[in-house]
Amino acid sequence: MSKLPKEHKFLDLSDYGRPIAKIIANALKHTNFTPIHVTISFIISGLIGIWCILEGYYWLAAFFLILKSILDAADGELARVKQKPSYTGRFLDSVADIVLNALIFISIWYISDTAFWICLLAFLGLQLQGTLYNYYYVILRNKFDGDTTSRVFENDTPIALPGEKQQHVNTLFALYKLLYGSFDKTIYMLDSNADQGKILPTWLMTCISTFGLGFQLLIIAIMLILELKAFILPFFLIYTLMVFVFIGIRKVFY
């Protein structure tokens, strides 16, 4: 099921792995593999990518970071084709993402001699970027009866869906709130009326999709290959300024 009707679909620059992710999901549709298994596989891919960064194998690091991005899309696709959405998978995915993001940035800091305060601020900026993208995208999906496991505001612990345990949902949701709560509150504080505004145009959503994790990992991969490791963390720190640009455009025009 498509997340958006045809007239509101946009070119998602962070979702380049979706075609391969669909192939993987369809190949696993009639197997015992679950979306959780695919999530675990992207965690492993991300960890291998981090090890490659530390060892200086930048081409391999790029490969595993991109593979991680593809598998990150494949777990959701598999949940859709098996018709087994779950909050366990939704929050495990998010918790794994932020932990891997932190480890990726720490590994880049380690190999690039960048000041640690730049690493810290760049990581916070990276997460703020991703939060804004998800915020606007979930609002857009909810306007058109999108998937039910993603909500504009994650305030209350959801009720477990059939096939999952409430205890797992409770634990992962608590971790999600701990790790993402401050970013959600910051974006909400900056643009609390976004859900009451007009539908964002496709061109703007495409621009904002550069904040998506898939595109962020692609930028990291390319910069590693080009031996620009010293510029990765400063780039994401500076690019965070676009958060305020996009919010300003939304408030003024939409």
TrEMBL record:
Annotated GO biological process: phospholipid biosynthetic process
Family: Belongs to the CDP-alcohol phosphatidyltransferase class-I family.
GO molecular function, one term: phosphotransferase activity, for other substituted phosphate groups
A Pfam family the protein falls into: CDP-OH_P_transf
Keyword field contains Oxidoreductase: no
Keyword terms, alphabetized: Membrane, Transferase, Transmembrane, Transmembrane helix
InterPro entries membership: CDP-OH_P_trans, CDP-OH_PTrfase_TM_dom, CDP_ALCOHOL_P_TRANSF_CS
Protein name (Swiss-Prot/TrEMBL): CDP-alcohol phosphatidyltransferase family protein
Signal peptide location: none
Record organism: Bizionia argentinensis JUB59
Ranges that cross the membrane: 32-51, 91-109, 115-136, 203-225, 231-249
Gene Ontology cellular-component terms listed: membrane
